[in-house]
TrEMBL record:
One of its GO terms (cellular component) is plasma membrane. The chain crosses the membrane at residues 602-627, 639-660, 672-696, 717-734, 761-784, 796-816, 828-851. This is Olfactory receptor C family, v3. It comes from the Eukaryota. Its main location: membrane.
C-alpha cells in the first residue's frame, strides 16, 4: 500500500501541481507576495454548485481505467477512465439532492447555503488522489483562495472503496479536513492515529467480519469448506484477515484464497476460476468492489461453472449491474450482507430530471444515456452508437440508475451530507463565551476552519426517519446490515429480497436473524447447499483428521466396541459405563445383556436329562426293591445298593441347581450339595468294594475278616467318609461362601451372572476329596477284578470308577476354559455323565439278569465257580 501511495503521489504531482499550500490551515499569518497559486493542470469536477460553505464529493463514476505512459519524457497524460457506472452516478445525484433539500429548509442552516464539487475517482486510488488534490483547489486560478484565509472546503463526502479512502484521507489529513465515507468499511480506517479526520456512515468490517456476521452465516448453514476471493485493496485484505480471525476455533475451514488484480487481468481471472471449478468448496465468499467484480463475473459466466453459492460482501451485493436476466442462472441465490436500506422521498423524481438537454456539456450525462439506451445523444464523427434525442424517459427498467425502491449506498450518501449540515448548523448556533474552543470561543462564521467543523461532527446526533445517526470515538456509526438474497423477479431479472437482519446493537449470538424459508439458493434450490470437505460423521463414528490437511478434511472411523458417539461429527468416542455396552450402531449405551445358564435350549436339555436320570434311578430302585429277596440283590449287599441309588438320585437332581439365575441360596447349595451327595455315593461304593474284596480273599473257613466289615462297620465307613466332606463344606461356607457374582471381564459386551466359588482352595479341596475317594475305590476294585465267580461285582465297580474318573479329569480343563454360563453347563454335564456312568455300570447288569435272565438269578448259578 505504501508503494501505491508513493506512485500515486508522484503521478499526481506530475498531473496537477500548485505552487503553494493552504498555510492558513496551520497559521493565521498573512501570505507573502511570493505565495501566488499557479494552476499547472486542470481536473474539472463532474458537478459543481456554489454556496456559502462548500463540501466535496468523490464517487467512482467509472469502474475501470487505462494507465497512460509514465516514462517521464513528456507531460503526463490523464488516466483514461472507462466503464461508466450508473449506480455510482445515482450516488452523486443523491448528494446533489441532499444539498438542494438542505438549502431549501428553513430549520437547517437558515440564511446559509451549501455548495459542492463532485469528482470522479474511477474506482482507483491513483485517480482518487488526483480527485482529492483537485477538490482542494478552486475551479480556476482566480478561484483558488486556499493560500489566504480559511479553506472554503469544509468536508468531503467519499470515497467508496477503502483503498481510495485511505489515499484521499491521507491527502486531506494535513489540512484537517473531515471526510465522511459512505461505502468504505475496512477496519483499518478506525485507527485514529493514522486517520484522525475519517468518519463513515457504513459499519466497518469489525462489525461485518470480526463480530460474527459472515462467520455466523457460514456456521449457521454448516458451510465448513469455503473459498475466499478478494480484491487487491485494503478493503479485501482486512476483511479476509478479520474473517480468518473470526473462523479460528470454529468448524469452518478455508479451501483456498484468491485475489482479483486491481488492474483486471483476464489470464489471472481464469486461473482463479479454474481453482473454483476444481475445488470441492461450493460456497465462495467474495470481498470485492463492484468495479473488479463486473469483468470477473462476466468471465465466470463464460466458463459455464455451476453449483457455486456466492456469499457477497456489502460492496457488491446490491450492484444493480448484475440484475439482468442473463445473470440469474449463474448468480441467482447469492446471499450477502447489504447496507441497511432507507427512504429518500424525492430521489426518483430528481433522478428523472437529469438528461442531456439540461447538461449539454456534461460528458457523464452523455455516458449515462449511452449506458442506459445504447445511443449517443450528441452525435459526433466516428461514433459507433446510433443517435438519439436525449429526451427519452427514464424508466424503472433502468434499475442500475433508477432503482430507488430500496436505496442503500445512496442512503448513506444522503446521511453523510446531512451529518455535515447538522454539524455546521450546531457550529453556527454557538454563542460567544460558551464555545468548545480556546477560551470558550466559537468559530468565526465567515472564517470556519475544517477542524472546527470536525469537532461538531464528532458530537453530532440527529434522526433521519426512524434511524438515529451519530459517530463513536473512532468515527464509526451503528452497525446494521440487511441480509439479501438474489432471486428471480416476475420479469426474469434479479431482485434483492430481504431475508433477514444483522443488528450490531443486540447481544452477542443474537445479532443474526434469518427467515430461512424465504431464501432461494443457487441453482434455484430451496434446500441449503452443502459445502464440506468431508461428509459429516454420523453418530456411531468419530472424526479422524487426515494428516497434512485442514481439520475439515477427515475420515469417519467407527467407534470401537463398548464406545459410542451420539452426536454428529464427534471428535472421540465415549466409553460406556461398566454395566452398559454399545448398541450395534455404536450410537447409544444399552444395558449389557445378562447371561446365565437359563432355561433355554441348553438349559432345557440338561433339565430333561437330569429328570430322566433321576427317574431311571428311581425305577432301578423299584426293581431292586421288588427283587430284594432274590439272590443277586441279597448277595451284593442290598442295603448299600439302596444307599447308592438314593445318592445317585440326589446327584441327578443336583444338576438342576446349576440351571437358572444364580441366587444366594442356589450358589450355596450348588457345590456343597453335589459334593456331599457324590461323597455319599462314592463312600457307599467304597464300602461295597471292601466287602467284595474281603469276601473273595478269605482263604480259609473260619477267617474273621468279614466280622470287621459287618453292616455296622459299613455304615460307619460311609458315615465317616461323608462326614469329612460335610466338614470341608461347612468350613467353606463359614469362611468364604459362594455367592452370585456378575462377571464383566470374560466378555465385555455381556454380564455373565455366575456363582463365585468364594474360596478356590475350598472348591478344589471338595473336588479333590471326591477324586481321592474315587481313586481309592478304583484301586481296590481293580485288585478284585480277577477274583472267581460267575458274577463279580468288582468288575462293575472298576468300570464305573474308570468312567467316573475319566469324566472328572476331562471336566477340569473344560471347566477352566469354558466361558461364563458354559462353565455351569460343563459342571452340570459332568455331574450327569458321572451319575449315568455309575448307574449303568453298577446296576444295569443286575437289572438285566433280574428282568431278562431270571434263570441266572439263582444261588446255583451264582455259586457255580
Amino acid at each position: 500500500m505504501a508503494l501505491l501511495v508513493l506512485l500515486s503521489l508522484l503521478y499526481s504531482l506530475c498531473v496537477l501541481t500548485i505552487t503553494c499550500i493552504p498555510i492558513s490551515s496551520f497559521t493565521s499569518s498573512p501570505p507573502s507576495a511570493d505565495n501566488v497559486c499557479t494552476l499547472q493542470n486542470s481536473f474539472p469536477p463532474s458537478f459543481v454548485a456554489k454556496g456559502d460553505y462548500v463540501i466535496g464529493g468523490i464517487f467512482p463514476l467509472h469502474y475501470n481505467q487505462e494507465m497512460p505512459d509514465l516514462n517521464g519524457t513528456y507531460k503526463a497524460l490523464p488516466v483514461n477512465c472507462n466503464g461508466f457506472d450508473p449506480r455510482a452516478f445515482r450516488w452523486a445525484q443523491t448528494m446533489r439532492l441532499a444539498v438542494e433539500e438542505i438549502n431549501q429548509r428553513a430549520d437547517l442552516l437558515p440564511n446559509y447555503t451549501l455548495g459542492y464539487k463532485i469528482f470522479d475517482s474511477c474506482a482507483y486510488p491513483l485517480t482518487g488522489q488526483r480527485a482529492a488534490l483537485a477538490v482542494l483547489n478552486g475551479l480556476s486560478e482566480d478561484d483558488s483562495p486556499m493560500c489566504q484565509g480559511a479553506s472554503p472546503l469544509l468536508a468531503v463526502i467519499g470515497e467508496s472503496g477503502s483503498a481510495q479512502s485511505i489515499v484521499v484521507s491521507r491527502i486531506l489529513q494535513p489540512f484537517r479536513i473531515p471526510m465522511i465515507s459512505y461505502f468504505s468499511s475496512c477496519a483499518c480506517l478506525t485507527d485514529r492515529r493514522e486517520f484522525p479526520t475519517f468518519f463513515r456512515v457504513i459499519p466497518n468490517d469489525d462489525y461485518q467480519v470480526r463480530v460474527k456476521a459472515i462467520a455466523q452465516l457460514l456456521i449457521r448453514f454448516n458451510w465448513t469448506w469455503v473459498g475466499l476471493v478478494r480484491g487487491d485493496h485494503e478493503y479485501g485484505r482486512f476483511a479476509v484477515q478479520g474473517l480468518l480471525r473470526e473462523l479460528q476455533g470454529t468448524k469452518v475451514c478455508v479451501a483456498y484464497q484468491e485475489m482479483i488484480p486491481l488492474l483486471y487481468n483476464r489470464k489471472r481471472a481464469l486461473e482463479i476460476l479454474e481453482v473454483m471449478r476444481s475445488s470441492s468448496a461450493k460456497v465462495v465468499v467474495v470481498f470485492s468492489a463492484e468495479g473488479e467484480m463486473t469483468p470477473f463475473l462476466r468471465d465466470y459466466m463464460t466458463q459455464n461453472i455451476t453449483g457455486i453459492q456466492w456469499v457477497a460482501s456489502e460492496a457488491w451485493v446490491t450492484a444493480s449491474v448484475f440484475t439482468g436476466s442473463e445473470f440469474y442462472p449463474f448468480l441467482g441465490g447469492t446471499i450477502g450482507f447489504g447496507i441497511r436500506k432507507g427512504h429518500i422521498s424525492r430521489l426518483s423524481l430528481y433522478l428523472q430530471t437529469v438528461n442531456p438537454w439540461l447538461y449539454p456539456n456534461n460528458n457523464l450525462v452523455k455516458e449515462l444515456w449511452e449506458a442506459l439506451y445504447g445511443c449517443n445523444p450528441s452525435p459526433s464523427p466516428g461514433s459507433q452508437l446510433p443517435p438519439c434525442s436525449g429526451q427519452e424517459s427514464l424508466l424503472e427498467q433502468h434499475s442500475a440508475y433508477m432503482n430507488t425502491s430500496s436505496p442503500r449506498v445512496a442512503y448513506n450518501v444522503y446521511k453523510a451530507v446531512y451529518a455535515v449540515a447538522y454539524s455546521l448548523h450546531n457550529l453556527l448556533l454557538c454563542q460567544p463565551g460558551t464555545g468548545p474552543f480556546q477560551n470558550n470561543s466559537c468559530a468565526q462564521r465567515k472564517n470556519i476552519h475544517p477542524w472546527q467543523l470536525q469537532y461538531y461532527l464528532q458530537e453530532v446526533t440527529f434522526n433521519i426517519g426512524e434511524e438515529e445517526v451519530n459517530f463513536d470515538l473512532k468515527g464509526d456509526s451503528i452497525p446494521y446490515y440487511d441480509i439479501l438474497n438474489w432471486q428471480r423477479g416476475t420479469d426474469g431479472n434479479i431482485e434483492f429480497v430481504n431475508v433477514g437482519l444483522f443488528d450490531g446493537t443486540k447481544p452477542v449470538g443474537e445479532e443474526l436473524v434469518i427467515q430461512e424459508d424465504r431464501i432461494m439458493w443457487a441453482g434455484h434450490q430451496s434446500e441449503v447447499p452443502v459445502s464440506v470437505c468431508s461428509a459429516s460423521c454420523l453418530p456411531g463414528s468419530r472424526k479422524a483428521v487426515r494428516r497434512g490437511e485442514p481439520v475439515c478434511c477427515f475420515d469417519c472411523v467407527p467407534c470401537d466396541s463398548g464406545k459410542i458417539s451420539n452426536q454428529t461429527n464427534s471428535i472421540e468416542c465415549t466409553l460406556c459405563p461398566e454395566d452398559f455396552w454399545s448398541n450395534n450402531d455404536r450410537a447409544a449405551c444399552i444395558p449389557k445383556k445378562v447371561e446365565f445358564l437359563a432355561y433355554d435350549s441348553l438349559g432345557i436339555a440338561l433339565t430333561v436329562i437330569s429328570v430322566v436320570g433321576a427317574c431311571l434311578t428311581i425305577a432301578v430302585f423299584a426293581v431292586f426293591f421288588y427283587y430284594r429277596k432274590t439272590i443277586i440283590v441279597r448277595v451284593n449287599n442290598s442295603e448299600l445298593s439302596f444307599f447308592i441309588l438314593f445318592a445317585l438320585t440326589l446327584c441327578f437332581l443336583c444338576s438342576l441347581l446349576f440351571i437358572g439365575e444364580p441366587t444366594l441360596w442356589s450358589c450355596l447349595l450348588r457345590h456343597t450339595a453335589f459334593s456331599i451327595t457324590f461323597s455319599l455315593c462314592i463312600s457307599c461304593i467304597l464300602g461295597k468294594t471292601l466287602v467284595v474284596l474281603a469276601a473273595f480273599t478269605a482263604t480259609r473257613p473260619g477267617d474273621n475278616i468279614m466280622k470287621w466289615l459287618g453292616p455296622k462297620q459299613q455304615r460307619s465307613i460311609i458315615f465317616i467318609s461323608t462326614l469329612i466332606q460335610v466338614v470341608i463344606c461347612a468350613a467353606w461356607l463359614i469362611d468364604a461362601p459362594p455367592s452370585p457374582s456378575p462377571n464383566t471381564q470374560y466378555e465385555r459386551s455381556k454380564i455373565i451372572l455366575e456363582c463365585s466359588v468364594g474360596s478356590s482352595i475350598a472348591f478344589w479341596c471338595v473336588l479333590g476329596y471326591i477324586g481321592l475317594q474315587a481313586c481309592l475305590c478304583f484301586v481296590l476294585a481293580f485288585l478284585a477284578r480277577m477274583l472267581p465267580g460267575n458274577y463279580n461285582e468288582a468288575k462293575s465297580i472298576t468300570f464305573s470308577m474308570l468312567i467316573f474318573c475319566a469324566v472328572w479329569l476331562a471336566f477340569i480343563p473344560a471347566y477352566i476354559s469354558s466361558p461364563g454360563n458354559y462353565a455351569d453347563a460343563v459342571e452340570s454335564f459332568a455331574i450327569l455323565a458321572s451319575s449315568f456312568g455309575l448307574l449303568f455300570c453298577l446296576f444295569a447288569p443286575k437289572c438285566y439278569i433280574m428282568l431278562l435272565k431270571p434263570e441266572k438269578n439263582t444261588k446255583h448259578h451264582l455259586m457255580g465257580k
